[in-house]
Amino acid sequence: MAKVATDFMKRHKWTFETPSSELAQYTEEISKSLKDDRKVRSNAKMRFRVLGLTKEQVEVLIPIRPTGKREEGRDTVDKIAQEIVEKDYPSEKIKQISYDLGSSTPNPVAGSSRLTLL
Prior knowledge:
By secondary structure, the chain is mainly alpha-helical. 64% of the residues lie in helices and 0% in strands.
């Protein structure tokens, strides 16, 4: 999708001096122009860099997307850990939370990873 990057650069005459606030106006439009594919997005990012934009400017135009599936309505491990610290849970409650967190994963490796984060 280097063509998308090239077209945007030519059409809007962007340079490394273009403010990020101006570039941010086009984030959604560029996102719609690119497929929701990591390789396509990566190629477009590289092309913007080759055409003279800085890494920060490119990240404004094509934001980094987290990988993996995300369950809606579920607290992140960071939020759970913060709640444990703020409410000063007893060790039994913490063990129950960690057991629930570890057993709610699709495989043992993911469960171990979540517990490590906690």
